[in-house]
Amino acid sequence: MGAYQTIDPAHYASTLDWWRDAGVDVLVEDAVRDWLALAPAALPPVPAAAPAEQALPETLAAFAAWRAGADAPEAGWSGVSVAASGPADARVMVLVDCPEREDGDAGALLSGPGGRLLDRMLAAIGLSRETVHLAAICARRPAAGRMPRDVEARLGEIARHHVALVAPERLLLLGDATSRAVLSADRQAVRGSLQPFHHKKGTTGVMASLHPCLLIERPALKAESWRDLRMLVAGMGMDEREERTA
C-alpha cells in the first residue's frame, strides 16, 4: 500500500449524504458546544387562567332577571326557573335548596304538601308567604332532585348575594344542602343557635332547620323544627301563637 492511494470519489459523496441526512449542514458553529452537557429540562406548560366569574347584579330586580336568564348556572338544566316571592324588604327570608316537582307547573316554590306545611309553620310564628321572602338556591329543579355538588359553591355564592340584597333580620335555611351552601356547614353542626351572616348592609341572624318534606316523612322531628322557629323570631317582636305545627 503506497503513500499515494486512489480513493473513490463515491465514498466522499456517500459520507456527505449520511451527514446531511443526520442534520449536519454546516462545518462549524459560532459558539462552542459542550456535547456532553445534559439538555435543559423542558418547562411545564403554563395553565390557562380560569375564566373570571361574572359579577352579580347589584339590585334585586336586576338579580331576579339575571337569575332566570341564560347566564345563570342552571340555564342549561331542564324545566323552568321558579322565581323568588315576597317583599324585597322582608324582615324574614326563607331559603330551600331547589324547587319541588310540582313547583315548575305552579310557578311558585313549595306549592305541594311541603308548602302547605310551611304555611302552617309560618302562621304559628306570626308570618305568612306574603310577609317572607321565599327563594331557592337552585332556580330550577336538578335532574337528580338534589343540588349538584360541582356547582354547590357557586350557587351558595349567588344565594349569599341574594340574601345581602334583601338584607333580612332573620334567614331560615331549610335542609342540609341549603345549610352547606350558605353556611359551609351541615345543619347538625350549627343547629340550635342563630348564626351571624355578615354582609355589606349589616348582619342577618341565620337559623338552619329541617325541610318541610322531611317533617312529613318523619313527624317526630316537628318538635325540633318548632324550637328552631321559636328561636328564629325571638327578639323580633313577632306576634307568636302558642301552638305547635300540625
TrEMBL record:
It comes from the Bacteria. Keywords: 4Fe-4S, DNA damage, DNA repair, Hydrolase, Iron, Iron-sulfur, Metal-binding. Residues 86-230 form the Uracil-DNA glycosylase-like domain. InterPro entries: UDG_Type-4/5, Uracil-DNA_glycosylase-like, Uracil-DNA_glycosylase-like_sf. It holds the Pfam family UDG. This is Uracil-DNA glycosylase family protein.
